[in-house]
Write a structure and sequence with these properties.
90 residues; mainly alpha; 2 helices
């Protein structure tokens, strides 16, 4: 009779401990998610908007003439020597 009571008490204690661990894990996970969301909100709402550009942002103030290097050359209608040899081979 006494070993059965000890076994019942021990299993009850173990069950209570596992329930507490499960509850604490759930609470910890919820707190972690809430803190992460709060940190993200704080960053995007308060920190990121403070990174302003100093000076004028008017596009007319900038000189864009030097940036024409990336544009392709205009088609002049001339055929390169490589294209001529390819056409002759056909």
């Amino acid at each position: 009779m006494i070993p059965m009571l000890l076994y019942s008490a021990a299993s009850l204690i173990v069950n209570v401990i596992f329930k507490w661990i499960g509850t604490l894990t759930s609470v910890s996970l919820v707190l972690f998610v809430l803190l992460g969301g709060g940190a993200a909100f704080y960053y995007f709402k308060f920190i990121k908007p403070k990174q302003n550009v100093k000076g004028s942002t008017d596009l007319e103030d900038f000189d864009f003439e030097d940036y024409d290097e990336d544009e392709p050359e205009a088609d002049t209608g001339e055929v390169s020597k490589e294209e001529e040899t390819e056409e002759e081979a056909l």
